[in-house]
């Protein structure tokens, strides 16, 4: 075997020296305060058995999709599931991707064009940032959830409703060379590391004022917010004001995959130009059946959502004021402990006591913002929350 390249070995050594080397770990059997399974769907036996029953009912016995959806992989459950997802989210169309990463990569690498502008929150997920990097559009980040900073950028790149140019689409401006420019604003409804949210209503107002297109990743809101878990956008009745939403199924839905929600035209465009959709094998019938069944389960999970929000409130009530946290009303609660060594040590101590709490290290989060990321669930008990917070107060000081 050829020797490992020295340049790569040096990067690994640097990670080890910074105490930031990532490693795969097996499940440890501890009480779950780390997974994204907010409603317990991943371990829900009813979903498991109903998925099997659906496959038998449809006589679907294939273990795989056999090819990309544009070749041989577009089995019957796809169109049925996409139609239901679109109806559930009160939108024209949904297009299923293999994962949230694939959905963001496909959308942002293909939709914004060379003369377009992307304005994105500085804490957007890596999949969004990677997709933006692959785009031909120019991109600029704005300070996290800072709508003043965003508006300053919009005044440079957008045409406001008070002073817009006459074009065929009033959300586009004309560049000096006569080409049209579209401005996309990109954010998340619930941020994966901080657990906080932008002011979506004010954000929509800015979008309308400056004739921009709004794109929102709802990965950590789907299943949690809304009467039936529709997400934060629909909970605020803003679905008609958003150009595209990305919903992922690996969090509260407990399965795998994702979908881009938008117009029929957007779906048609992505089928033709999103490379992460075109050039990959489709999801298996079993995977799509699980998505279908999990969506049916959402309408019956009001009790689980109520328990989850009770636990969120209880966590914040019992958290000592001396513990530094990022304010959040979502299932993600972050305790700031500066330094990789410190946060890794406290996480290890909690795990030794039987609580699976994960350390989030730099460079995953900015230097000085290292943290313990508590993920709360409907199935966590208040006794478990009290115990882990008591231990936290001991280990931190």
TrEMBL record:
Keywords: Pyridoxal phosphate, Transferase
Annotated pathway: Lipid metabolism
Key word Transferase present: yes
InterPro entries reported for this sequence: Aminotrans_II_pyridoxalP_BS (IPR001917), Aminotransferase_I/II_large (IPR004839), AON_synthase_class-II (IPR050087), PyrdxlP-dep_Trfase (IPR015424), PyrdxlP-dep_Trfase_major (IPR015421), PyrdxlP-dep_Trfase_small (IPR015422)
Domain Aminotransferase class I/classII large, residue spans: 30-389
A GO term, aspect molecular function: pyridoxal phosphate binding
Pfam families cross-referenced by the UniProt entry: Aminotran_1_2
Known cofactor(s): pyridoxal 5'-phosphate
Family membership: Belongs to the class-II pyridoxal-phosphate-dependent aminotransferase family. BioF subfamily.
Record-given protein name: 8-amino-7-oxononanoate synthase
Organism: Flavobacterium orientale
């Amino acid at each position: 075997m050829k020797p490992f390249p020295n340049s790569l070995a040096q990067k690994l050594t640097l990670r080890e020296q910074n105490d930031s080397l990532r490693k795969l770990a097996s499940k440890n059997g501890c009480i779950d305060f780390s997974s994204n399974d907010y409603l317990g769907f991943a371990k829900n036996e009813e979903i498991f058995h109903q998925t099997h029953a659906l496959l038998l009912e449809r006589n679907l016995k294939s273990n795989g999709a056999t090819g990309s959806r544009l070749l041989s992989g577009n089995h019957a459950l796809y169109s049925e599931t996409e139609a239901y997802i679109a109806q559930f989210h009160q939108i024209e169309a949904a297009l299923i991707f293999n994962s949230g990463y694939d959905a963001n990569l496909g959308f942002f690498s293909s939709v914004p064009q060379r003369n377009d502008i992307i304005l994105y929150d500085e804490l957007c997920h890596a999949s969004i940032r990677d997709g933006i990097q692959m785009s031909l559009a120019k991109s600029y980040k704005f300070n996290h959830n800072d709508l003043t900073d965003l508006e300053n950028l919009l005044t440079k790149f957008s045409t406001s409703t008070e002073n817009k140019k006459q074009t065929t689409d009033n959300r586009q401006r004309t560049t000096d060379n006569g080409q049209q420019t579209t401005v996309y604003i990109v954010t998340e409804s619930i941020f994966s590391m901080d657990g906080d949210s932008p002011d979506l209503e004010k954000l929509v107002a800015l979008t309308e004022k400056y004739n921009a297109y709004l794109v929102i990743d709802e990965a950590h809101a789907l299943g949690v917010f809304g009467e039936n878990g529709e997400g934060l956008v629909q909970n605020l009745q803003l679905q008609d004001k958003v150009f595209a939403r990305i919903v992922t199924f690996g969090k509260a839905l407990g399965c795998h995959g994702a979908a881009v929600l938008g117009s029929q035209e957007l779906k048609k465009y992505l089928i033709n130009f999103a490379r992460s959709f075109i050039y990959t094998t489709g999801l298996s019938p079993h995977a799509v059946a699980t998505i279908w069944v999990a969506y049916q389960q959402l309408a019956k999970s009001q009790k689980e959502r109520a328990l989850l929000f009770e636990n969120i409130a209880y966590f914040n009530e019992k958290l000592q004021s001396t513990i530094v946290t990022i304010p959040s009303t979502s299932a993600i609660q972050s305790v700031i402990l500066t330094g990789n060594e410190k946060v890794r040590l406290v996480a290890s101590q909690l795990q030794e006591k039987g609580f699976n709490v994960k350390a989030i290290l730099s460079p995953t989060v900015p230097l000085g913002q290292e943290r313990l990321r508590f993920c709360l669930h409907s199935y966590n008990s208040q006794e478990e929350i009290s115990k882990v917070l008591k231990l936290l107060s001991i280990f931190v000081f």
